[in-house]
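Protein modeling request. Please complete all fields; requests missing the sequence field cannot be processed.
Requester role: graduate student
Desired output: 3D structure, token encoding
Chains: 1
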Amino acid sequence: MRGRVLAAYVTAMCVSGLDATIVNPALFAIAADLGVPPAAANAVESAFLASLAIAMPVAGRLCDRYGASRVFLAALAAFTAASGLCALSWDLGSLVCFRVLQGAAGGVLTPAGMAMLFAAYAPEERMRLSRHIVVPTALAPALGPVLGGLLADTLSWRWAFLVNLPLGAAALLAGAAAPRPAPGTGGGGRLDVRGLLLAGAGSGLLMYGLNQAAAGMSPLAWAALPAGAALVWALARSARGTELPLLDLGLLADRGFLRGAATATLSAAGLLGMLFAFPVMYQDALAATATDAGLVVFPEALGLMAAGFLVDRACARWGERRVVAAGLLGGAALFAFLALAEPGPWTLRAVMFAVGLVLGQAVTAVQVSAFTTVGPQVMGRAMTLFQSLRMLGGGLGVGVCAAAAALAGYPAALLAAAAFLLAAYGAAVLLRPAAVAREAGTTG
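Delivered output (444 residues):
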């Protein structure tokens, strides 16, 4: 029976991973079909990422109260249903609303699935699970750009969402047949409703303002951006006076963790901003097909997979600081190359592979170092905060790059993505813990 738990988890993670990358090559077709400028389609991705980030902290409370298996199945059903609704969208506004629902379900799905899996397998058995999990969950995001481009060209962009329905149904059948432990006792404290509302409204207004800027600067954008920033500031203030805040921002007082979170957040903004802007530019400016765009972007995921195998040896040989610096500066240089040069398809594929390789190693290295000083009693809250900030950074990066593309052209969008990586490099250098900085000074 535990095999059904594993099958449900792997299938669900394949659905989630595929959805994370399958939509980008289809965004140009979405914009054309729904009658909006290509840059305005950023709302489809930025709204998804923002709702994903806000829902993540809620997952633990729901699992404590109702049981991980029940929460997992409910989130999977909601994600699958939202995918079907996305395929039925009649305009950009309806698609964005359904993507928000899909992102909220996805934000709960991954942590609930991991909790369900760990509840079914003892600690000494979990390492052996990796052989069943790593390949399919890494392969699905890698195949997403190619599949999304093919579906957009041969059928319709709507199939980029419809493809989730049979996979989601299969995962639901496997999960429904698996044993379900009794739900928790409702421990873990009360949900920070005020923080949830502030986070949702603040990030929503920021994304809306950036989307309005991408569609053509309007008074709504000028009003939404400062209002969103004010609500995010209110969220930070609220977290200080709440016993169990939605996002425990007090953990950022640890300088090592702050360095890792800031670097990863800015890196996500740059990478996801580039992955939005480049496929749209490739189709809009160069008259390429969605399939061509997917095939060009596809090697980036392969580079990320390769980085996972190389980062340990790279850090052991050159040290974490050099790996992070080389990755972020190298990534910024590659983004600038994409903005300023006009290479052929095979050169672009090589560049995309290099992007995944260098940024994958940099972000993995800084993430590992970020948690070296985090105690076990706050590890769960720290991981939730880290992942939520990373997703929010990705959403803001998509929005900023879309606004830059609308106001100054696609090269400006790619240069904005490069600027995010340079800012990440600055965070990695300037926010080093004092002890590490002193050690570097004495050995330099």
